[in-house]
Amino acid sequence: MQKLTALVVDAAAGFREQAKSILTAAGFNVEVAENGQQALTLASAGRFRLICCSDDLPDIAGSDFCGQLRALDGYDYAAVLIMTDNDNARKLKQALLAGATDIFNKHDTQELEIYVRRLAERETRHLSGRVLFIEDSRVLQTIIIDLLTDMGLDVDAYTFAEEAWAAFSGGDYDLVITDIMLEGSMSGITLVRKIRRLREESGNLPIIATSGFDNMSRKIELFQLGVNDFVSKPINREELRQRVFNHITSYQNVRELRAQQNSLYSLAMLDQLTQLFNRHALREFAGKYFSEAYRFNRTLSMAVLDLDHFRDLNDKYGHDKGDQVLAELGNWLKRHVRDEDMIARWAGEEFVMLLPGCDAPAAVVLMQRMQKRLQRFKPANMTISLSVGVAEMRHEPQDNLNTLFELADRAMYQAKMAGRNCVRQYQTEEGETL
Q: What are the residue boundaries of the Response regulatory domain, all occurrences included (predicted)?
């Protein structure tokens, strides 16, 4: 883990201790100085990542201190915070022009706490991820590979875009860094274009383009093409490091959020016990089945399956055994339906199947075959049977999931009345088959 060092410069001992306490809590090793000259001597002898300096030092103005500090070797990218007793626009402008990173009011320590905590988290965070890197200069390639690996990243480096494209097709990357002008038949521009044409998630991968041609019109063309960022050559290591950090963390955060959303969606759509779709999912997706049946004048049937004597099973063996039966039955049903069918757990021990392209007589045959196979299956070492009701969509204006379910559910009760463990197609009271 990177060692964080900070310097507090203030004539007031009370504020020095207060600032030191805040920085130490954030993970910094802190040194203190009472005046500007002492601070500059300490800064020359060591390397501080963060400097908190009063705007009113006894020997030098805060803005002048910033200018002299920035002139020291190694302080180009240090965070320099000016601490003031009074907000003053003129002081702020002077400090920023002299090289200050930001200015804080000494009386609002909460803002300082937030800033230093976030800086510490950023500096000490060890990235993990995979970078596809294309650069035809061997010297520059070595320098950037060292930078990326020091950040904790795995790097696949290539000299030619053709090789990189082949690797991209089979890899799982978090970032692409590519030179625009490359040797070979494929340029970096072509590589970017091919990536952006992909429809899957990898087509949205962040891309940093590099080039020795720092031309504004070329930059605009690259952004229009789909690059997320541009770094001019010769490449500044710290600039590239910060840009890589931002793009990878943002991309990984988005992927994590999307994964969480997909997980929540799955939880909302799946019955957790049987891992079948639940009633909510059935209502969500049924519209597609009905619209296609109307549009293409296709048949659509529904089967309602109810586990026989399930209440007796629960009373005799307990609800844990009953849950085990339902879980294993759900897995079995999922493996014994056609790819185009949809099966869901409706409620309790009741299941619903939508059977597109299947009329009622064919659905009855399909369910009877399933019942025969079920005789050889003993979930939780229990012998079970199903009563099944089948109904066919009538292509009438009022037909929908609810009306079809009502018919199939009635047919299921007719199967119960017929002695259970059988399949019945819905019939009207007059005995006419629908």
A: 5-121, 130-248
